[in-house]
Amino acid sequence: MPAKLCTMARLSLAEIRHKKILAGAALLTLAFLALFGLGLHFLRGQGVLDRLAAVQLFTMGLFLAALLTAVLAVAVAAGAVAGEVETGTAHSLLARPISRPTFLLGKYLGYAAFMTLYAGLLFAGLWGLMAWQGGVFLRGIGEALGLFVLQPLILLGLAFLAGTVLSTLGAGVVVFLLYGVSLMGGMVEQMGALLERAGHAAGPTLVKLGIVASLILPVDALYRRAAFSLLEQTGNLWRGIGAMGPFGVASIPSRWMVLYAGLYLVMALWLAVRCFRTRDV
User: Fold this and answer.
1) I want to staple 226 with a disulfide (CB 3.0 to 4.6 A). Which of 116, 147, 219, 262 is the partner?
2) What is the pTM of this model?
């Protein structure tokens, strides 16, 4: 069984390398990092205000990096299962002594390996530019990196699940819509936390709405937790600036939410396997 999983994973990696979207994604990622580095370069200075502005820019950059990673994850994985069924490739592969769970989980491992590499390099690029051009060495990088990588892995699992019951287009649309709900819920929760601190009556309600959205899809909550782990040891003033705005971390997701996100991924893959067992290929 492990050998067959590894074989499917290798085939999936080879499949990803031939996707035309990768060239465009690579160019856009390099352009994003270049603009982020230039922004930090022009903000670089010895004053406190310069570094505070750099921290604010970093939270926005990390948010947009998570968005780029999510878009790429859904774009490459939406047809990973549904596309194979639609083209008949899945039928030819399953005609061999490969079980459906092995087929699906092996493909997931291949896509997960690719997205882990991409997300890790993108995160390292942001952190390195922050240290080099921003002059700020953010700590908590280990925890933040793990949380950042977990985001696309959850979206991959959800895309695989959607692909077992929907077409390629349908799977992509559903996952993107759920991701949009997660992003909006996260922003609502952060604004609610700021209003709650200001004594506004609507603050607690908005925070609860954001938490409900995180339960539907906990991806944005992972970004907030990752940003918090990086800013936690930067000092009260820096952390306060980093908490401002829709990209900030005024409301900090708990470690229970991180655990929930891990269980969410396991459940998505379990459901994907169950649904794929009964799908007509």
Assistant:
1) 147
2) 0.92
